[in-house]
Fold this protein.
Amino acid sequence: MSDQRIIGIGMDYSPSSKQAVEWAIENLARNGDHIILIHAQPHSVHGTQKQLWEEKGSLLIPFVEFKEMHLTVQYGLKPDAEVLDILEIAAKTKELKITAKIYWGDAREKLCDAVDELKLSSLVVGSRGLGALKRVLLGSVSNYIVLNASCPVTVVKAA
């Protein structure tokens, strides 16, 4: 049996998801682990790949391809160069396998689906730090995931 763990990181390129990447790399990832960046795009985003992969999400995209692709056109994503640099350095120094997967739909449901589909050992997500009223009115993605995911979940608060 392999010691490789599969760690998912919820990614929307917000400051809190960037912090989640940094936290996961520094505190959770071990040499040889597999990191999957999980993107949940709203239904309204119309990348060219959406029709093909809408129900189960995209195929796993290797990091080398992910950082080179025209993600805005194909998937409606705008990756942050700093996040990509952090991941590239971590891939080399910790010998991590890094891939990305893109889903379309409600982030709460899609991140929970990803836990089971990808057989994640752990999931790390950022928190926008909504106040109590906004959290009640809008709902908290991280709170939903903590309550419904079938693996350990770490919520990283933005600084």
Q: What stands out?
A: The CA atoms of residues 49 and 108 lie 21 Å apart. The chain has a mean pLDDT of 84. The beta strands are 6-10, 34-41, 61-62, 97-104, 122-127, 153-157.
